[in-house]
């Protein structure tokens, strides 16, 4: 990687110039507050709602999304699923020992989800797989390739494309180089914006964007772009990332957040390079200009109100600063937490952490379909995934 590797608290140097919401001084003030660990409040404009409705779960969403929004036409839909973590193992527990993990049953959960999507009245345009597709235990049992093949064969039954995000368990099983050449690399599904070379992602990280429906752009981010996982330990990048991690985490066990003021600085997390954030900023600038709605996907969450702080991306504030300087982002989907979470941030971006398949009992389910309307997106959750309504920012609701 040639670009500077850092995990600072500040936004990228050039994004505010293109910003729609933050004047430079306001952006600096916001960044300074965030650096102190404070969750940002609206700076340059009114929040989307006076009191953002946290946990605005809708228990009453019915099974026929076409009837949900009578005045509004369903444009398209997409599926979401997270943390399958398949392994051919007996049930186990998470590190704390308080959440059961159903390693074998996770494959049956995936099959159930695929059967559901395949039989929806109107097929979703695609499925977003939010990372951790097989569990790290596979590496210990030398079963990584076999387990991946089994899960990928299951995904073959899906009638629509699947976009794969990479999480920490991908890197417990495989090197980044291996992943780049594997079926988990779905970058071939990317969209290229002609005449805007700055929106072409670098090969140094695994990120891309695509347009499944006119005026809706989806962006997959690489939350392990800065990481000690999956990187050759003799490389300069590994040394740089280890330095960042050690600067924030003095524990001898780097997976332990014990005593940390910024508990996200653990080995099982990672972050976004400045290079990737600059690229994200360019794509969002294009989307703003062209009045697109944007959905962002990453294995790691970036909004503290929607997530356990131990699960956040190292430099989540940098990613938030970029996103908040644009008007186009509707929602940010992440996995990793397994417990799930939701919050609408003060800039009207909906942060959804999807419940993990791996910690879902056999008699339940964990996936969802998002129905996209001209004025909102509606997540219809299955099993332990709650329904959510994600209204677009008011000043940005458009006609399609
Ligand atoms: N508090 C902790 N202290 C030390 N190691 C931990 C802690 N939490 C997790 N780990 C280790 O970090 C790795 C990732 O944790 P895991 O729970 O498997 O992640 P995930 O939630 O992505 O499945 C495992 O090797 C686990 O043992």
UniProtKB/TrEMBL annotation:
Question: Which intervals hold domain Calcineurin-like phosphoesterase?
Answer: 127-339
| Catalysed transformations (reactions) | CDP-choline + H2O = phosphocholine + CMP + 2 H(+); ADP-D-ribose + H2O = D-ribose 5-phosphate + AMP + 2 H(+); CDP-glycerol + H2O = sn-glycerol 3-phosphate + CMP + 2 H(+)
Q: What is its EC number?
A: 3.6.1.13, 3.6.1.16, 3.6.1.53
Q: Which domain of life is it from?
A: Eukaryota
Q: Does the keyword Metal-binding apply?
A: yes
Q: Which GO terms describe its molecular function?
A: 2',3'-cyclic-nucleotide 2'-phosphodiesterase activity; ADP-ribose diphosphatase activity; CDP-glycerol diphosphatase activity; manganese ion binding
Q: Provide the cofactor list for this protein.
A: Mg(2+)
Q: Which UniProt keywords apply?
A: Acetylation, Hydrolase, Metal-binding, Zinc
Q: Report if keyword Cell division is assigned.
A: no
Annotated function? Hydrolyzes ADP-ribose, IDP-ribose, CDP-glycerol, CDP-choline and CDP-ethanolamine, but not other non-reducing ADP-sugars or CDP-glucose. May be involved in immune cell signaling as suggested by the second-messenger role of ADP-ribose, which activates TRPM2 as a mediator of oxidative/nitrosative stress.
**The family this protein is said to belong to:** Belongs to the ADPRibase-Mn family.
Describe the protein's quaternary organization and the partners it interacts with: Monomer.
What protein am I looking at? Answer: Manganese-dependent ADP-ribose/CDP-alcohol diphosphatase
In the UniProt record, the gene name given for this protein reads ADPRM
């Amino acid at each position: 990687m040639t670009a500077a590797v850092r995990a600072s608290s500040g936004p990228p140097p050039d994004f505010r110039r293109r910003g729609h919401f933050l004047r430079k001084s306001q952006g600096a003030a916001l960044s300074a507050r965030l650096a102190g660990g404070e969750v940002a409040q609206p700076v340059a404009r009114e929040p989307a709602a006076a009191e953002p409705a946290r946990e605005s779960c809708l228990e009453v969403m019915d099974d026929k999304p076409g009837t949900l929004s009578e005045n509004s036409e369903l444009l398209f839909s997409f599926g979401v699923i997270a943390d399958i973590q398949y392994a051919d193992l007996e049930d186990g527990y998470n590190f704390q020992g308080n959440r059961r993990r159903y390693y074998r049953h996770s494959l049956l959960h995936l099959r159930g989800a695929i059967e559901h999507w395949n039989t929806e009245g109107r097929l979703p345009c695609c499925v977003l797989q939010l990372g951790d597709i097989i569990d790290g235990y596979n590496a210990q049992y030398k079963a990584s390739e076999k387990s991946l093949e089994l899960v990928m064969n299951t995904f073959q039954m899906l009638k629509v494309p699947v976009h794969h995000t990479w999480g920490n368990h991908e890197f417990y099983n495989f090197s980044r180089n291996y992943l780049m050449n594997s079926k988990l690399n779905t970058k071939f599904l990317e969209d290229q914006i002609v005449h805007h070379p700055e929106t072409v992602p670098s090969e140094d990280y695994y990120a891309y964007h695509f347009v499944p429906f006119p005026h809706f752009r989806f962006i997959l981010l690489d939350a392990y772009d800065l990481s000690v996982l999956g990187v050759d330990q003799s490389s300069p990048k590994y040394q740089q990332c280890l330095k960042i991690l050690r600067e924030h985490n003095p524990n001898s066990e780097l997976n332990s957040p014990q005593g940390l003021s910024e508990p996200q600085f653990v080995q099982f997390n990672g972050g976004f390079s400045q290079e990737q954030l600059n690229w994200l900023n360019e794509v969002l600038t294009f989307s703003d200009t062209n009045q697109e709605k944007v959905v962002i996907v990453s294995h790691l969450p970036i909004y503290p109100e929607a997530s356990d702080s131990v699960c956040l991306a190292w430099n989540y504030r940098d990613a938030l600063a970029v996103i908040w300087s644009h008007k186009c982002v509707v929602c940010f989907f992440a996995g990793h937490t397994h417990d799930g979470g939701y919050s609408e941030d003060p800039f009207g971006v909906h942060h959804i952490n999807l419940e993990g398949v791996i910690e879902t009992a056999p008699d339940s389910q964990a996936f969802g379909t998002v129905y996209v309307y001209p004025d909102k997106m509606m997540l219809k959750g299955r099993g332990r995934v709650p329904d959510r309504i994600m209204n677009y920012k008011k000043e940005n609701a458009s006609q399609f």
